[in-house]
Design goal:
The protein is an alpha/beta fold and 220 residues long. The chain has 8 helices and 12 strands. The protein is elongated.
């Protein structure tokens, strides 16, 4: 049975997560401070940690940084307040595997936990999307572009995957928002533009074309 460490200081939220995960057949342990989270995460007894950013004693970013700099590769799913998205993007670059902003739906949290828990032996066959010098491995979630391998954050991965499954097609900002961010975005935010910029850094400046007034297209 997989063991999930829940580091969350709001009892209402930790018990909501704990009840749901237990009902889904997972073992859980709750801690409510950053110091406890770090100690438990280092114990090697867990398969994944759900880590709140706003924790007493040590915040979630500090915990994550301490783990990664000590070569602890426990998968970490960050929970963050909605207004902390920019910080969270920084956190993902700092070694988190995924994140969700509060409030969240339990079924989405569970799907993300299960995706991270899946072992390589349960995945079947090669699963690589390729287009014009770009390839995306759907298992390792790594991007290869002109022979160079790059790691992607969770959102970048979903966005690249969306482009690679619709080559040459214009994707509107709204289509991208609803596919990549779901309910989880502020209307009117410039998050799509920001991520397109990140991807252009990783894919090269010319691969994703802006189609004025319509959206973005992966060039053929
Ligand atoms: Ca908190």
């Amino acid at each position: 049975m997989s063991r999930i460490l829940i580091a969350e200081d709001e009892p209402r939220i930790s018990s909501f997560i704990e009840k749901g995960l237990r009902a889904s057949g997972l073992a859980t342990t709750v801690v409510a401070s950053g110091v406890q989270a770090l100690a438990m995460a280092r114990s090697g007894e867990f398969d994944l940690m759900i880590l709140d950013i706003g924790l007493p004693e040590l915040d979630g970013f500090t915990v994550l940084h301490a783990l990664r700099s000590g070569s602890v590769d426990l998968p970490v799913l960050i929970l963050t307040a909605r207004d902390g998205i920019d910080d969270t993007v920084a956190g993902l670059r700092g070694g988190a595997d995924d994140y969700m902003s509060k409030p969240f739906r339990f079924d989405e949290l569970l799907a993300r936990v299960q995706r991270r828990l899946r072992t390589p032996s349960q995945t079947v066959g090669a699963n690589v999307l390729t287009h014009n010098g770009i390839s995306l491995d759907l298992h390792t979630r790594r991007l290869h572009c002109d022979g160079n391998a790059t790691d992607l954050t969770a959102r970048e991965f979903t966005l690249v995957q969306m482009f690679l499954t619709h080559p040459g097609q214009v994707l509107s900002r709204e289509q991208i928002l609803s596919h990549v961010w779901g309910y989880d975005y502020e209307p009117g935010s410039n998050i799509v533009e920001t991520y397109i910029r990140y991807l252009r850094r990783k894919l090269g400046p010319d691969r994703i074309e802006t189609v004025r007034g319509m959206g973005y297209r992966l060039r053929d």
